[in-house]
């Protein structure tokens, strides 16, 4: 069934769900696509400096907030969405994919296999602006080695993916030291496992 995605999160409509507590509202530039959020604080919030985000957003970096797919409710325009698979460069709804308004082309979110990445600049914060900024404050930079502008804010800066690359630039020294220790421990663990595998291989040969 080609329209099966419409009955699953994040596109499932929560009109009759009394348990969906809308705390925020967001929309694209033209207003055709509108949504609600039921979670006050994202699971995580990050700046991404990868070249794909730079090109697709036409900006130095992307500010993304991670939510569960069940946290969002599209009230208008979920039929007016367009998709883009940046890996295969197709417009099919294939995970993971980029989601945008099909009319004004505003990027709405990145949909992953389990989570969604929303863009806080689309979310209305007319109430307590200070609290909103605290809730959505980014905790780190990713792919900072691809940056086109320096941001000396003292936040952790990963050269690539978070927890899977080096910490660089003005990352706090204690975090760099901790990361170096973790990397060294991982290398020792891998070396021991490799030795065990070799010993097992020799034993079988005998």
Describe what you observe in this structure:
The relative contact order is 0.14. The chain has three helices and ten strands, in the order βββαββββββαβα. β1 and β2 form a beta hairpin. The protein has 206 residues and is α+β, with helices and mostly antiparallel strands.
List the helices and strands and how they pair.
Elements: E1 24-27, E2 34-37, E3 44-48, H1 51-57, E4 62-68, E5 72-76, E6 81-84, E7 97-101, E8 107-111, E9 115-118, H2 129-135, E10 140-142, H3 173-205
Parallel strand pairs: 3-10
Antiparallel strand pairs: 1-2, 2-5, 3-4, 4-9, 6-7, 7-8, 8-9
Short description:
The protein has three helices and ten strands. With 206 residues, the protein is of the alpha+beta class. It starts with 23 loop residues before the first strand and ends with a helix.
Q: Helix fraction?
A: 10-25%
Strand order of the largest sheet: 6-7-8-9-4-3-10
Beta-strand portion reads 15-25%
Biggest beta sheet summary: 7 strands, mixed
Going by helix content, strand content and strand pairing, the class is alpha+beta
Number of strands: 10
Shape: globular
Contiguous low-pLDDT stretches (5 residues minimum) are none
Order of helices and strands: EEEHEEEEEEHEH
Number of helices: 3
Rg for CA atoms: 21 Å
Measure the end-to-end span.
Answer: 56 Å
- State mean pLDDT (0 to 100 scale): 88
Key terms for this structure?
alpha+beta; seven-stranded mixed β-sheet; three-stranded antiparallel β-sheet; 3 helices; 10 strands
């Amino acid at each position: 069934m080609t329209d099966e995605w419409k009955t699953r999160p994040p596109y499932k409509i929560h009109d009759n769900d009394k348990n969906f507590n809308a705390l925020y509202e967001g929309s694209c530039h033209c207003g055709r696509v509108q949504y609600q959020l039921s979670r006050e604080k994202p699971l995580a919030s990050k700046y991404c400096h990868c070249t794909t985000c730079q090109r697709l957003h036409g900006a130095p970096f992307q500010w993304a907030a991670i939510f569960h797919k069940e946290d969002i409710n599209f009230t208008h325009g979920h039929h007016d969405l367009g998709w883009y698979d940046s890996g295969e460069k197709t417009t099919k709804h294939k995970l993971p994919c980029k989601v945008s308004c099909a009319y004004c082309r505003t990027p709405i979110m990145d949909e992953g296999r389990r989570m969604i990445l929303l863009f806080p600049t689309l979310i209305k914060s007319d109430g307590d602006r200070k609290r909103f900024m605290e809730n959505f404050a980014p905790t780190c930079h990713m792919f900072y080695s691809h940056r086109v502008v320096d941001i000396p804010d003292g936040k952790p800066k990963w050269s690539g993916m978070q927890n899977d690359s080096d910490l660089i630039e003005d990352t706090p020294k204690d975090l760099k030291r901790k990361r170096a220790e973790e990397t060294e421990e991982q290398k020792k663990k891998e070396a021991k496992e490799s030795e065990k595998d070799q010993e097992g291989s020799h034993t079988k040969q005998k």
